[in-house]
């Protein structure tokens, strides 16, 4: 059974993208088939995977109805649906369950789907949460940490 995990935090720079990448890499090393999804308009997860972002199809097109399978890029470190720097401008028009519906046809191809998000409490995060089975909340444990 596929587990969909969202990585979230209201604090920028707390290591959400690094966590998404390392969790996925660890699961791949254990023999699990993983997919990462870059829902952050900063597209750092796509950059880490050396995948050109903003070249359709990306997560923005998937949320607009392009089949998720068409957006998956295979990399040397697992599969990714790349991000898009304009996702914030395009995704508020879709229903809250758009990501869950988009993932339904590909869920059986993966053991884990890891979703990286921005630090914003926006509709992209809501879509990620509604598509997920689990949530990892990143916190920054520093003397002056907030958020």
What does this entry show, briefly?
With 147 residues, this protein is of the alpha/beta class. The chain has seven helices and six strands, in the order E-H-E-H-H-H-E-E-H-H-E-H-E. The model has no long low-confidence stretch (mean pLDDT 87).
Overview of the molecule:
With 147 residues, the chain is α/β, with parallel strands linked by helices. 32% of the residues lie in helices and 18% in strands. It has helices at 16-29, 44-48, 59-63, 68-71, 87-90, 98-103, 123-131; strands spanning 3-8, 34-38, 73-75, 78-81, 112-116, 134-137. Strands 3-4-2-5-1-6 form a six-stranded mixed sheet, sandwiched between helices. Strand 3 and strand 4 (78-81) form a beta hairpin. The longest helix is centred in the first third of the chain and has 14 residues, at 16-29.
């Amino acid at each position: 059974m596929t587990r969909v995990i969202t990585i979230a935090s209201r604090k920028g720079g707390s290591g959400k993208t690094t966590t998404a990448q390392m969790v996925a890499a660890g699961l791949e090393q254990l023999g699990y088939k993983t997919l990462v999804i870059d829902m952050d308009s900063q597209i750092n997860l796509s950059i880490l995977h050396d995948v050109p972002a903003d070249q359709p199809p990306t997560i923005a097109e998937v949320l607009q109805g392009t089949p998720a399978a068409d957006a998956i890029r295979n990399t040397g470190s697992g599969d990714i649906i790349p991000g898009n720097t304009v996702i914030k401008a395009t995704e508020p028009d879709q229903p809250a369950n758009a990501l869950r519906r988009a993932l339904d046809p590909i869920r059986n191809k993966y053991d884990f789907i890891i979703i990286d998000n921005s630090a914003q409490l926006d509709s992209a995060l809501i879509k990620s949460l509604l598509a997920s089975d689990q949530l990892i909340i990143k916190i920054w444990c520093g003397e002056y940490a907030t958020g």
